[in-house]
C-alpha cells in the first residue's frame, strides 16, 4: 500500500452444534484453545466469538453452542497473550451495567485485548427467554441498543486512567477526584455508576458492531471502533466514514472489516483467495476482513498455512503484532475525544 | 462415608486485597489485586494445592460505599467481575470448585443459568452459584430502580428465579413441549442451548439468614454460608436449617452448612495477636468512624474527640439490643471512640480466630464435631499472606487430625462436597 497500511484480519468462530455427548464428557475447550492459539501464531488481529444469536434464525430454538461467549473469552485470555478476543453479547440478554462490568473485567484479564461485538440484529427467540415475550419493535430495539451502548462506553470511562493511587502509607487507594458518576437517565435505562471495575488497559474495550442496516449507520459512526460488513462493503464503508467525520471522529477511527467465508474456495488455490482479498482492500472498500468459518482445524490450517504467506509476500499483511493491546494493533487511538 | 470419618469442607473466600478493611495497607499485601489476574491464578493454585473444596467470590453490582472519601480509603470499589474471573481460573486449575455470588435482583434466570452452566463446562463440573438478593441502594441506582423492593418481594422473586434456573439446568423447562415458564416475575420459552452439566447441575449456594431466606435455602440450596460469632449462634442456625429440610423431602446431609471464619494464624499466640494488632493499626480513622457510626446509627460521631469516650447517646428507634450491648461494653472497658471504631472495623460481624495452628484447629474442630458446622468458608485477612499461612499451617494440622482430605477423591464440586447428583 502507498501509505504502508496493511490489512486487518479477524476470524469469526461460528460454533458448531456441540458434539452430542451422551455421557459426562462436556464440550471441548482444548480444541477451541488450539484454534485460537493457531490464529495468534499466524498474527491475526482478533478472534470473534459468536454467541447464540448468530446461530439462531427463524422460529426454531437456538442451536446448541459449546460455551457462552464471554466465559469462553475469559478462559481463552489465559492461554493466549497477543491476539484480540471479541465476544458477542446481546443487548436483550444483559443489563448495561452488568455487560459493562463483564467486558471491563475481561479486558483486564486479557491485558487489554478484549472487545464486545454488539449485533444490531435482534434474535427473534431471545426476548421470550428474558421475560419479554412481547419482544421489541425494530425501532425500539434500535433506540434501546443505542442508549445501551452509550451507557456501556460511559461506564468504561468512569475511572480516569490515573485514578488508582495504591498509596499504602498515605492511606489513599484512589483519588476521589478521578472517579466519575455516570448519572444517566434515558428512555430505557437509568444508571448512576460508577463501574466497580478499574479502567481498561487499552482505554476502553474495543466496540465491534455488526448486523448494521442503513438506520444503524449513525449509531455505528458515533460509537463503533470496528464494523463488520457483508460483501460488497465499499459503499457502506465510505458512507460510515463520512458519517464519522460528520460527528467529529477521524475516518481512521473506525475500521471496516468485510465478512468473507473462504472455506469452500481454498481448493481454488491461495493466489485466487489472495486476489479476492487484495482487490477490495487496495480499492479501499474495507480495512480488512473477517474470515467466517467453523472451528475445523483442517480448514483453518489451509487458510493460515497457504493464504496468509501469499498475502505477506504481496506486502498486504503485517508479520507481527505491532502493539500490546487490541486497540493499538488495530491502529485505534484511545477514545478520549468522546 | 463408610470407611473413613466425616471430614470438613473448606472454602477459600477470595476478596480483593483481603477481608480486613485495612488489608490493602498491609506492607506485604498485594495492593494491585483488583487488576492483576496472575495474582488470582496464584491464589487459586495455593487453595487447590491445599485441597480446598472451593474458591468463593462475593459480588455486588455496584461500588460498596457511597461516600467517596471513605471509599477512597479502602480497596473495595474496584475488582474483577466474578464470572469472568472464575472462567479464567477454570482453565488454570483442575480440581477446585469455583463458586460465585450473583444477585436475583438484577439478572434474568435464563442468562444466569446459561452463564453458570458454561462455567461448569469450562471447569469440567466445578461451578457453583451463590444466590443473593440485593439490598443496596447503590446497586438499585445502577438498574433504574427507584427504590428497593420489600424483603418479602425480593425473596419471592428469588424463589421463582431459583426455580427457573434449576429447571433449566435439569432440562425440565422446554417450551417446545409446552413446559416453558410463565410466572410472576419471569418468563422463559426455550431450553438452554448448552449441553447438560458434567456434575448434573452446578452447585446451589445460599447465604440468607432471615426466616424466609432459611426456607429458600432448605428448599433449594446444596451449601449454606453463614456468619456466626459464637458456638451457640452457629449451632442454633445449624439445627434450625437442618430441621427445615424434611418439609421439602430432603435429608439433613443434603445441605452443607459452612460458617465464615476469619483466622489469623502464627507459630505462637503472641505472634498471631501481634499480626492482628498490626492490621488494626492500619484502619484509617475516617473509615473506622464511618463504620461505627453506621452500626450505631449516629450521624455526628466525628464531632467528638476521637480519643475520648463514646458520648451519651439518646435512646433511638434504630438502636437494637446488640448495639446497646456494644455501648455498654465500651463503657465498661473504658474504650475510646478510636478503639471502639477499630474493634468494629476489624471484625465486621464475622468469627475471628487468632492463634496458633493447633488453637485454630481446636476451634474449628469444636464447631465441626459439636454439630454447628459441616465446614468453613475461610476469609483470609489479607492476600496472599494469610491464605498462604492457613494453607501451610492450619490445613496440615486438620489433616493430621483426620478432619480434612489429603487428596481430592473426585473431579467435580459435587464429588468434593459429597452431594447427590440431581436426576
UniProtKB/TrEMBL annotation, chain A:
Domain Luciferase-like stretches: 18-256
Superkingdom: Bacteria
MF annotations from Gene Ontology: monooxygenase activity; oxidoreductase activity, acting on paired donors, with incorporation or reduction of molecular oxygen
Binding-site positions, FMN: 51, 213
InterPro entries: Diverse_substr_monoxygenases, Luciferase-like_dom, Luciferase-like_sf, NTA_MOA
Keywords carried by this UniProt record: Flavoprotein, FMN, Monooxygenase, Oxidoreductase
Family per record: Belongs to the NtaA/SnaA/DszA monooxygenase family.
Name of this chain's protein: Nitrilotriacetate monooxygenase
Species whose genome carries this gene: Mesorhizobium mediterraneum
UniProtKB/TrEMBL annotation, chain B:
Oxidoreductase in keyword set: yes
Luciferase-like domain mapped to chain residues: 21-372
Transmembrane segments: none
Domain of life: Bacteria
Keywords of the record: Flavoprotein, FMN, Monooxygenase, Oxidoreductase
Gene Ontology terms, MF aspect: monooxygenase activity; oxidoreductase activity, acting on paired donors, with incorporation or reduction of molecular oxygen
Gene3D superfamilies with a match to the protein in the record: Luciferase-like domain
UniProt cross-references to InterPro entries, sorted A to Z: Diverse_substr_monoxygenases, Luciferase-like_dom, Luciferase-like_sf, NTA_MOA
Positions contributing to FMN binding: 59, 101, 151, 155, 210
Family: Belongs to the NtaA/SnaA/DszA monooxygenase family.
Designated name of the protein: Nitrilotriacetate monooxygenase
Species this protein is from: Mesorhizobium mediterraneum
Species classification: Bacteria, Pseudomonadati, Pseudomonadota, Alphaproteobacteria, Hyphomicrobiales
